[in-house]
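ok so dumb question maybe but i'm new to this and my supervisor (M.) told me to 'just get the structure for DUF2156 domain-containing protein' and walked off. so i did the thing. is this what she meant?? sequence i used:
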Amino acid sequence: MSGAEETTPAAPGATPPNTPPAGTDTTPAATTAAEKAPADKAPGPPPTAPVTAEAAPPASAPLPAAAGRTAPFEVWASRLTAALPQAWRRMPFTITVIALTLLLGLVGRTIWRPLWQEGWFPQVAYGVPALQEGRVWTLFTGWFFAITPGQYVTGLLLFAVVVGACEIRMGTRVVAVTALAGEIGGVLLASLLVWALSHTSWPWAVHLATVRDAGFTTGALTVLAVTTAALRSPWRLRIRALLGFYVLVGFLFEGTLSDVAHLIAVGVGFGVGQRLFAVEPGFGPRTRRETRLLAFAGLLAIALTELVVLLFPGRGPFGETAGRATSLLDVLIDLVIVGIVANALRLGKRWAWWVTVVLGTLNVLVAVAAVVILLVGGVVTDEAITLGTGVLWLAVLVVLLFNRRAFRVPIRRRVPGGVAADEGDALVRARALLTSVGGSTMSWMTLWPEMRFYFLRDGRGYVGYQRHAGIALALADPVAPQGTIAAAVTEFTEDAERGGLTPCLFSVTDTAAEAARAAGWRTVQIAEDTLIDLPGIAFKGKKWQDIRTALNKARREGIEFRVVTLAEQSFAVLAQVRAISEEWVGDKGLPEMGFTLGGVDEALDPAVKVGLAIDAGGSVHGVTSWLPVYAEGGRVRGWTLDVMRRRTDGFRSAMEFMIASACLAFGKEGYEFVSLSGAPLARGDDPVQLDRTDRLLDKLGGALEPFYGFRSLHAFKAKFSPRYEPVHLAFRDEADLPRIGIALTRAYLPDATPRQLIAAGFSGAGKEPAGH
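this is what came out, is it supposed to look like this??
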């Protein structure tokens, strides 16, 4: 092969290809002998000239531009060649059609020349003239051409992406039959319809009956329409709505023969696909959220269509859209106003529903009046726009009127029945429920002052949540009797949506995650709960060497461990605890975090146990707080670690000492386990556990790592050889993730200002994680 040779660098620690093995003589004499060895004994082609040490470039010199890498074209070509066999096995129909289309385009020169300029254009193009001339074969041959080179390229890309993906999902036989039937049937029915209408006085139909066309988009759109039936919500409705809007707008404002064929083929494809391949019944939205998003998208689509038609006028069934009286400024103002109303529809606002219904009704009435005027021989200004937008508004009105219950959110969004912790006896009720029915290792955190409570209708449980950025961010599993968690998730979801909020479950166990998945939600592991079983614990064996060292060192230095109720301690002890906490927070560059991270105020609760490392002089070297984990019936079955801080100039192994001492003390009292809790936004490195949607949370955890050391904290807890239980985030679909990320940031950093966040982002790059 001519050109630069590809060189592959040796792996670290490996012997470079031209390096003699260890022990080989590399003196000049040995080198000369090697150079004089017969050529037939050396593998590979002989070098053209010997390379001496003097001629070699220095080790630090850059390689030539072509050395050490393959030319981009060669890389691209090799990867494409390697992928072809697998692509052929999965998409034989798609690849065959693309290959034939490219071949015919090259032979006929239509890749770079407009098809209509060729003398044989009437022989391959379909339309009413072709049927009148008896050229039925054009229904098939027109598939492999396009009118212009631009349409050729875009149509080919559309076919490759859409039909290829559908073939992988639906199978080759289904896609091949659907594409052929959709292309041939759609074009045939469109041509016959236009032919019939051309006998009337409708100018659009009369003109279209003289037009020949070509292209392969009708079959591709038919395949997509049929495949939507095999998709699950919410993507089933979203793709159908987008596809339906596309073909409807194309028909109303462009009105080419292909647009007519698209409308017919997609409509039939929806029906046939639903009949043969449906995985869910019906065509309507399944949830309030789908309904709201559909109305939101429809209203925005109408406004954007008005803008596009103004900038790129065309000629549709109702006439030309050029020369309209509305200015660009008027359209932009309308777009802003409609955007505000549409966003309120997305949130389910009652006032937005009324405004949209009134606007839609007026537009439909204007369109009906325009039809009446035209029928009696009158003149209507901008009749194409008036009638076209009237049809679009009618579709939006149907969605709004048949799903009006999805738009009952008052001006202020809230979960119906949700109350703040400081409202009335809400906190007392929640605490009584938690101590009676029990909860997970993080349930006690739902009793903190920043939380809100959604009490279940049967009064036997609650969901603790915070409200940020339109997200109802529920923390931990619902506090409810065993066997009712799934029902609690469903009830909370329904009322959150009814209040215009997007529900989300954060830091839940497998039980709640499975309930969410059963309801069609997505889940992703965001942390690992680290549990230490207490029965029989003694910290014996090699794996506990570090822990025993910390215990022995504390004994030698006179460090004592005490389990206390912090609120009952002396002022001197409490002042030292606050000073340690404030020193820890002050070193971060950000305010103290909340949500799943408590502080001294939360540790002052009499139900919380606090562990202190104190020397003989009364100096506090470290503090830990332990939250109770209740079982059904009011029994405390374990404790969850919350506050975990030490004095920077104190006993270095205070953390290991305090946690190990707490485990021994709790074990003697008969408790089942302690949870070292899951470091927020941190988890193990097992790639099997990761999901593509984790990236948002990974970025948030990575950004805060230099300041709070979540991931190093997770690694520290591994010293205690715990068992792990996954902690999950449950959400409805990926579209919610950006706002969930904002909600989590506000929940964890409620007091952080934008200036602090920006400053922390620039200062945290080289900062070491906090010690533990």
